[in-house]
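Re: that chain you flagged

S.,

Sorry for the slow reply, it's been a week of failed gels. I finally had a moment to sit down with the sequence you sent. For the record, here it is as I used it:
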Amino acid sequence: MTSAGDLARLAGLLADETRAAMCLALLDGRAWTAGELATHAGVARSTATEHLHRLIDGGLLTEARQGRHRYVRLADPSVANLLEDLSARLPAESNPPRGLRAASASAAMKRGRTCYDHLAGELGVAITDAMTGAGLLDQRGGFAVTPAGRAWLTGPAGLAAAVLEPGKRPLARGCLDWTERRLHLAGVAGARLCERFLALGWIVRIGSGRAVRVTPAGRRGLHELLGID
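Prediction finished late last night. Pasting the structure tokens below so you have them in one place:
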């Protein structure tokens, strides 16, 4: 059983602004170097390394070495789910971004972004709502792909049946969106759809962050596939 001490230690890993900033940056699903995370968090390389050791030892991050570089990323999708769920429980933003660049970045994140390996923001919620309305997802008694949904995923959506095997990760999971305060599709299905849309060029990343935008081809494709305007 989980003890109060274990839970307190886990919470303590995120009870530091620098470590929290690093974890949020890694929600883009990619691996970052310690130097990149130090720059992002605005701390010295040595300070970043100390924080990264704590996050790795605590099981929130994992590391891999390639040559002289050390890369870190979130340990697994469940860590991303934890971070997104915690973010969704924060009060609405009380300090609006200052300046055009910050406001534009904030608006882009709200419109569409990746949450580790699946789509979030207005885009992620719109896709989830369209799938639910079409009977492909059932949110009434949980969050599940229906038989019609599985046929759609391996038919019109163009996914191979083999990539939908859930294994340790559920096929579908509702992830509470921190900007929309509603559920978007996570799990294996959410990850594979995001991967598919990126490969088709329906969505593209904006810069080096988590924000994504829908391309003209994506607008047409999402309208034909799910009736999304």
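What I noticed first: The chain is about 50% helix and 15% strand.

Talk soon,
D.
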